[in-house]
Amino acid sequence: MSPISVLVVDDEPSLLEGLQVFLEDEGYEVHLSSNGDNALKVFRKIYPEIVITDLRMPGLSGIEMIRGIKHLKQDTTIIVLTGFGSIEAAVESIRLDVFDFLNKPIDLDILKTTLNRARKSIEAIQQAESETNMLREQLALAKSHIQIQQKSLEKQEAQAAVERSMAGMLHNLNNALSYIMGQSQLFQLVHPEIDVFKKIDQQACRMAQIIWSFIRKTRGSENRPEDWLDLNTILDEGVKFLETHPTFHGYLETKWRLADKLPLFKGNAEDFAQTFENLLFNAAEAMNGQTVKKLVLETVYDDAEICISIQDNGPGIPRELHDRIFEPFFTTKTGKPGSSGNFGTGLGLYSCRQIIQEYGGTIEAFSEPGQGATFKIHLPRNS
User: Fold this and answer.
1) Between these two residues, 180 and 39, which has the higher pLDDT value?
2) Could you tell me the pTM of the whole model?
3) Cα(24)–Cα(214) distance, rounded to whole angstroms?
4) Topology annotation, domain 225-383
5) Cβ contacts of 65 within 8 Å, gap of 6 or more
C-alpha cells in the first residue's frame, strides 16, 4: 500500500524542517510549501490526502488557500495549525470543513493522534469509494444482464410469431398436397399402367408427413414418437429421395464417408429425414450450372458427439450472408423453374436449426467463395 501523502504549509522554515523529519519517520510521503500560492501549485500536481497548514502567512491567506483546495478536491483532510487568530478565522475554517485544529507550539503526541484519526478517516473514505465503485460495476453488470434477457425475450416473442405464421402457411401447403394426393390416386385408378402416379403419391405423402411434423413442433407438441435411429440409413434415404427428382437425376456424384457402427441416436425419424433432405436439396440446387456436381457425405463420432457433414462443390456462400442463412424467411433462391427444397421461402435452414437445437445440437456452415459449402450437424451422444 502506498504511503499517505501530506502537504505541510507554513512560513517558518524550522517548523517545516521539524515536521518533515517527524512525518517521514511516521511513514508519510511529505511535501513542503512556505506560502499559500505555492501550496496550491504543489497541491494541483500531487493532490495529497492530508494538508497541514498555518492560517497566517504572507501572500494568500490560509483561509483562501483552504477554500482553493476544497474547490479542487472537496474531501481533502485539512489540519489547521494556529498560534493566534480571530474567532472569524476559526468559524470560517469550520465552515470549510477542516478536520481539526492544533495549537502552536505543536505537541507531537497530539499531532500523531490526530494524524492516526485522519488516516482512519481517509481509509474509511477510500473503502467507501471502493465499495461504491464495486456497486456501480455490479449495477452496470446487472443492467447488462437485464438488457440481454430483455433482448432474448423479444427474440423469443418474435420467433413465436414467426412459428405461428409458418404453421398457417404449412396448413395451406398441406391443403395443396391433399389435392395432389387425391388427383394422383385418381389417375392411378384410371391409368394403373403408369407407374409415375404412384411415385407422385408416395412423395406427396412423405411431404405431408414432414409438414405435419413441423406443425406439431410449432404447436409445442411433446407427443412426437421417438426411436433409436440409424442416421446413416436416414441420410442414405435422403440421397435416394434426392435422386428421384428429375432435376438432379443422373447428374450427381456422391462420395460416402460414413462411419462404421455409427451409434444409434434417439429421436424422431421425420425430424432427421426433413433436416437431411433440406440440406441435400440445398446442396444440389447450389450446384446447378456446375459441369460436375459432387456431394461428399460424412459421419463421424467420438465419446461425446455424432457429427454429420454434407459438402457440395457449388459456388459457395458469400461471406456477407454467413450470419443470415439460418434466419427465417431469408432466402437466396429466385423461384426459377425446377427449384426445390422449401420453394425459396427461406424456411429450410431455419427449420433445420430449430430441429437440431431441440436435440441439444448445433448446425454450422463453412464456405469460401468458389469452393463450395459444407454444413455440419453436431449432436450430443444419447446412447
Assistant:
1) 39
2) 0.44
3) 80
4) Heat Shock Protein 90 (3.30.565)
5) 9, 36, 37, 39, 40, 53, 57
